[in-house]
Amino acid sequence: MGKLIMNRVLPFSRAAIVLLVLSAWVSSPSWADTPSSKEGTQTLESLGRLNGQTLACKQPALTARIRDVVINLVPKERTMGEVFEQATSAAFLKQGTAALPCPDVKTLVEQINELEKQLKISFSKNP
Question: Fewer beta carbons under 10 A from the terminal one: N or C of the chain?
Answer without folding.
Answer: N
